[in-house]
Amino acid sequence: MAITRLGFKSLITVQDALNKIKSSISIRIKDIEELNLLSSLGRVSAEEIKATVDIPPFDRAAMDGYAALSEDIRGASLNNPVILKVTGKIEVGEISQLTLKTGEVMEISTGAKIPEGADVVIPYEEAKRVDGYIEVYKALPKWKNISRKGEDLRKGEIVLTKNQVIRAWNIGVLASLNITKIKVYRKPRIGILSTGSELIELGGKIEPGKIINSTKWMLAALTIENGGEFIDLGTAQDDIDEIENKIKNSIEKVDIVITIGGTSVGRKDYTIKAIKKLGAKIIFHGVSIKPGKPTGVAIYNGKPIVMLSGFPVAALVGFETFVKPIIEIVSGIKFMPLPKIRAKMSRRVASTPGVRDFLRVKVIEKNGEYYAEPLKLTGSGILSTVTKANGIIVIPEEVEGLEENEEVEVLLLRALEESN
Amino acid sequence: MAITRLGFKSLITVQDALNKIKSSISIRIKDIEELNLLSSLGRVSAEEIKATVDIPPFDRAAMDGYAALSEDIRGASLNNPVILKVTGKIEVGEISQLTLKTGEVMEISTGAKIPEGADVVIPYEEAKRVDGYIEVYKALPKWKNISRKGEDLRKGEIVLTKNQVIRAWNIGVLASLNITKIKVYRKPRIGILSTGSELIELGGKIEPGKIINSTKWMLAALTIENGGEFIDLGTAQDDIDEIENKIKNSIEKVDIVITIGGTSVGRKDYTIKAIKKLGAKIIFHGVSIKPGKPTGVAIYNGKPIVMLSGFPVAALVGFETFVKPIIEIVSGIKFMPLPKIRAKMSRRVASTPGVRDFLRVKVIEKNGEYYAEPLKLTGSGILSTVTKANGIIVIPEEVEGLEENEEVEVLLLRALEESN
Lengths: 420, 420
What we know:
The structure is a homodimer.
Chain A: H1 14-24, E1 32-36, E2 49-50, E3 60-61, E4 65-68, E5 82-90, E6 104-108, E7 120-123, E8 127-130, E9 133-136, E10 146-147, E11 158-160, H2 168-176, E12 181-185, E13 189-195, E14 199-200, E15 211-212, H3 215-225, E16 229-236, H4 240-250, E17 256-260, H5 270-278, E18 281-285, E19 289-290, E20 296-300, E21 303-308, H6 312-331, E22 340-345, E23 349-350, E24 356-366, E25 369-374, H7 383-388, E26 391-395, E27 401-402, E28 407-412
Parallel strand pairs in A: 5-6, 13-16, 13-17, 14-15, 17-21, 19-24, 22-25
Antiparallel strand pairs in A: 1-12, 2-11, 3-10, 4-6, 4-7, 5-9, 8-9, 18-20, 20-21, 22-28, 23-27, 24-25, 24-26, 26-28
Helix pairs in contact in A: 1-6, 3-6, 4-5
């Protein structure tokens, strides 16, 4: 008599799973590539950059007007205007060889180097031009309307640290230092291995009882969106040896492996069996998360293997929750949090205590307030709920449900204005 | 006697400027390109897609277990188990030709098509296998643990609307329908024209009094990051005719023009003069925003021209505030809001009433609370403040300042965990 009792003996909490990921995975991409400045956008810097010059490189006018000596206009007032002689004009990009003497001003354009002697710029608005002279009615403090040399960046100052993600404004700063190329770490290579004898490749002929492997393409898109390079490791049949061999033969060329499917604890769950046969170290398997319970993480040859469910929404939740933190460790990328908005629940929703629940909702505006309407279909395979949803509510383990009109934080999946 | 009084006569509010943009700009990209599914990520759909089949295409097992007739187990309980005969096994991807009769079950894998006659799946956990039979202790409702045909998507249902931004999960849904190519609108072409005789090209030789054109590269990076194609329109000297001709000669090949610099109302402000000479319709010029006051928008040949300040931070604020909404109109892209966090002001900050102020801050965590520390340098040219900042606080027009410990919303420029 053979008795079969299957199911996860115990489930780890999401937080404990993340802690285990942090303490177990230490591999870090070290390969470096040198890119043109603009191509480095979004990449992780592999070098520290210091300012080689002061920025601005010289004291320059911050407004259009007249370069002057602040001493000369110290006593200026409406009743007692100071009259100064205009001795020349400095266009931006030009250098004046003259030294300004007391009683003199020079017309100057924003951005132009101020002449020797000058320590203030009187804006056009605060001077009345009378032929070759100006009348000034107001005192201005020393260095007013002048951008000082090195005010923005001082020579030797660090402008980009190693491991910093390069953003648009970093590119601006690096350009201002005339830096044309920058060393970055290569992108993380994320190998995706699909498993399941029921899978047909995208574009293939549909056969009865079979389905298109669509989860792979969603995960490939998430990989690219999150700074990774997608490596297609193909599809293994429901066969422990085939899955094992496919991982063994590809582990060298990727930084992270994602497997899709076969990760529950049924008798058909070949992936988890293959991972064990491979001798990979299981970090955790079975998480109190919904959807995504059978998600697991293992390490083989120092490289993380993330076992995601074949159900698309469970795979999506698994990617957001576990793959992204692993990409951060392996690549040095730091992800921004998803944008959030506050909304009121349009109706009551129950949730399993002890489980972190990912509820798909549609946020709508009604009389200037946001309401989150839970979508009815909540199966882990129901990808259409994510395409109909524009937000996700994460219901924490200690919460048993959400009440009607309760205020909640919704993670936005797409802009609210979007038609869908 | 010549009198010079310069400066903006009046400034438009940001909201009025945005309203004018919405009511004045109607041009929309219509060119279509067909892409491979994965390449369509982040692009704007140019076609409506309907499901050509039901998804799932058949009733299938949602768990591993035994396909059965719900009638048979209606009275099952711990004291009164029902005993059913296992007549076969259906692997995923296989089709059973048998029809299940009363008293019979078939072992079935998750994802496999359920056999004719079956209307419930008994999970392994709820059945005790005794040789060729199972004992069932619990009734299950009809269709329990079965994903119904068409439950996710019904044939004919719209899965992607025209003008929708294609996200990872849309790619998953489209793949499940075996769609390999998708028509999208081409990316908006954003031409960037730099102006200023003081500018040296990136990589060029530095000359006294001149500076590298760094704002262009920051704006190019912002363009790419926001789904646009960067078209370099080169640099015009401080010469009205040259600026006018460069815009005239390039307007046909771009959807949006951004000019950098020369947009104030000083005598050196050649760009605004060139725009006027060109005969472009000025939508607004001069905004109550800080930094970025001289920002303007015009329309020429139906195409928007955005005049941004040459000062990098002012240009950044102008891009975020005005260029992004214009990209949305022209391309159909919808941007997600920047992620926000709530923080307390670490010190008091003053702000000019009537002006929308963009304050750069560094958010730090202290005893589990977030504090926003305003950066001291706040000139519009000071790009280093943005690279040192990790957040921006938008101080609205009606607010005169922020108090110490006041709770504020900070727009995140980068992940807080990032070193910088």
